[in-house]
Amino acid sequence: VLLLSLLASFPPATQPRDFTVKDIIYLHPSTTPYPHGFKCFTCERAADNYECNRWAPDVYCPRGTRYCFSQHLMKVTGESVSVTKRCVPLEDCLATGCTYIKHEEYKV
């Protein structure tokens, strides 16, 4: 009992505190490299969507790229071959949907 009362009298090693406005601004900076800049998760030829999402860095897109593009290449059996995610201009997003590449037995 004496040991427990002695340990209880020591202050904790760290003191909890509420976040301040300064902390929030530091954690969530509102500055971008250019006006209306935004981020996309990016990966090139990851093995599957899980691997891409797990390791993809969230990077600011360069000027002229206003969209996040995802391309998933699969075997016709549904097995993943590769996943690519990157920043692209609008022109790269006009053709959407699945495409079948018959001579390679892939779906894009």
Plain-language structure description:
- This protein is α+β, with helices and mostly antiparallel strands and 108 residues long.
- It is 19% helix and 30% strand.
- It has helices spanning 2-8, 21-27, 49-55; strands at residues 39-41, 43-46, 58-60, 67-75, 80-88, 100-101, 106-107.
- Strands 2-5-4-7-6 form a five-stranded antiparallel sheet, covered by helices on one side.
- The longest helix is centred in the N-terminal third of the chain and has 7 residues, at 2-8.
- Its main location: membrane.
> Structural class, from helix and strand content?
alpha+beta
Proportion in helices: 10-25%
Overall pLDDT score: 81
Task: Name the overall outline.
Answer: flat
How much beta, percentage-wise? 25-35%
User: What is the spatial order of strands in the main beta sheet?
Assistant: 2-5-4-7-6
Distance between the termini: 69 Å
